[in-house]
């Protein structure tokens, strides 16, 4: 088995008395697009700063290409960083901005210019070489920052919320372009965001962080469909959460007592075990469905039209603390105040033990 490109080993970090990273270990494979996903304060930006060499960890090691880079300064390690604010030099042309890293490496002017033109062509800005940054749109400036980072051919490209300053349409467009560029150049990208949709659009390796720890990691399809923890189930997309207790277990099946009634599903937990059952919005059905698990009735409290579907919030009539989140077809006639029957196929429950 090949060694990972990046190996973060038992990294912890403190700012004064506050511990912001708690014994984090993570491996990044060559050619992968890794997303560090989490809320503000989860430690994702600190971890990226440690990878880039801008922060030295309080404990632990960072290996890149098998070499210990824990104390290596940013300019000496095989990484480059793209920041949210682009950090372009306003007095320099676009070409000079892109070639700046090569200039710092002592590359001659002609080679710099040629490589800068290649990098700009890669991001679709071949004609912008002689322009100044203020003549470009926000999306174009983001692409210049990307070209400047890629021109020095880093082993790992670090992206700190690079699309956060863009409007929604441009952000979606840049997501598509980022993914295409990453596939073309084959460099490993590590990208910090708090946007779950961005994570699912870009990543082939998704790392969900919370309170300085890694909650879950894997392909985004798996993290979404079968999250490992309750936090992951509610942060990587939305979920209805049913708290429950295992009351019976035999022949690989458990019975879980929940506010919506007893639910049978595959499992080997012991009676008395506290669990949570998560259901994704697209798996909740707002009518009684034959063969599905009935979850009782609920009163619709909110309906939001979102184009291809309606997002429906409904409160259980049995337990007011139980809130259902469902996706109904855009054509559904459901309205606020309606009483609806709620059901779900047994195979769509996600069993969470922590």
TrEMBL record:
<dbReference type="Pfam" id="PF08402">
    <property type="entry name" value="TOBE_2"/>
</dbReference>
<dbReference type="GO" id="GO:0022857">
    <property type="term" value="F:transmembrane transporter activity"/>
</dbReference>
<keyword id="KW-0813">Transport</keyword>
<feature type="domain" description="ABC transporter">
    <location>
        <begin position="6"/>
        <end position="236"/>
    </location>
</feature>
<keyword id="KW-0378">Hydrolase</keyword>
<dbReference type="InterPro" id="IPR003593">
    <property type="entry name" value="AAA+_ATPase"/>
</dbReference>
<dbReference type="GO" id="GO:0005524">
    <property type="term" value="F:ATP binding"/>
</dbReference>
<dbReference type="InterPro" id="IPR013611">
    <property type="entry name" value="Transp-assoc_OB_typ2"/>
</dbReference>
<dbReference type="InterPro" id="IPR027417">
    <property type="entry name" value="P-loop_NTPase"/>
</dbReference>
<dbReference type="Pfam" id="PF00005">
    <property type="entry name" value="ABC_tran"/>
</dbReference>
<keyword id="KW-0067">ATP-binding</keyword>
<keyword id="KW-0547">Nucleotide-binding</keyword>
<dbReference type="GO" id="GO:0016887">
    <property type="term" value="F:ATP hydrolysis activity"/>
</dbReference>
<dbReference type="InterPro" id="IPR008995">
    <property type="entry name" value="Mo/tungstate-bd_C_term_dom"/>
</dbReference>
<comment type="similarity">
    <text>Belongs to the ABC transporter superfamily.</text>
</comment>
<dbReference type="InterPro" id="IPR003439">
    <property type="entry name" value="ABC_transporter-like_ATP-bd"/>
</dbReference>
<protein>
    <submittedName>
        <fullName>Spermidine/putrescine import ATP-binding protein potA</fullName>
        <ecNumber>3.6.3.31</ecNumber>
    </submittedName>
</protein>
<dbReference type="InterPro" id="IPR017871">
    <property type="entry name" value="ABC_transporter-like_CS"/>
</dbReference>
<dbReference type="GO" id="GO:0043190">
    <property type="term" value="C:ATP-binding cassette (ABC) transporter complex"/>
</dbReference>
<dbReference type="InterPro" id="IPR050093">
    <property type="entry name" value="ABC_SmlMolc_Importer"/>
</dbReference>
<dbReference type="GO" id="GO:0015697">
    <property type="term" value="P:quaternary ammonium group transport"/>
</dbReference>
